[in-house]
UniProtKB/TrEMBL annotation:
Keywords: Disulfide bond, Ribonucleoprotein, Ribosomal protein. This is Mitochondrial ribosomal protein subunit S37. GO terms for molecular function: structural constituent of ribosome. It comes from Schizosaccharomyces osmophilus. PANTHER family: 37S RIBOSOMAL PROTEIN MRP10, MITOCHONDRIAL, SMALL RIBOSOMAL SUBUNIT PROTEIN MS37. One of its GO terms (cellular component) is mitochondrial small ribosomal subunit. Pfam families: CHCH. One of its GO terms (biological process) is mitochondrial translation. Residues 30-65 form the CHCH domain. The keyword Signal does not apply. It comes from the Eukaryota.
Amino acid sequence: MSRKVVNAPRLQGLSRLRVRPKKEKQAIPCSQEMAALLGCWQNNGGNTNSSQCLKVAASLENCMKSQHGKQKSENTINYHLARLGKLL
């Protein structure tokens, strides 16, 4: 039995492509408000309907409403690899 050796195709033009380092992670929006609400619930025995936590819950809700729609989806390296895979 003879085995055929198949040479892998040489990728041309990929020498100039570089993977960029990841950007610094930004602070998670509304994390302080969420932590404050969870702390309030913990201090009140897990009662989520506590009147003391309504102000904190309202501030979290306002923060979440203001953040809605600001998220920008970034293309990942997997997206670009899949896109380049079609060219190979």
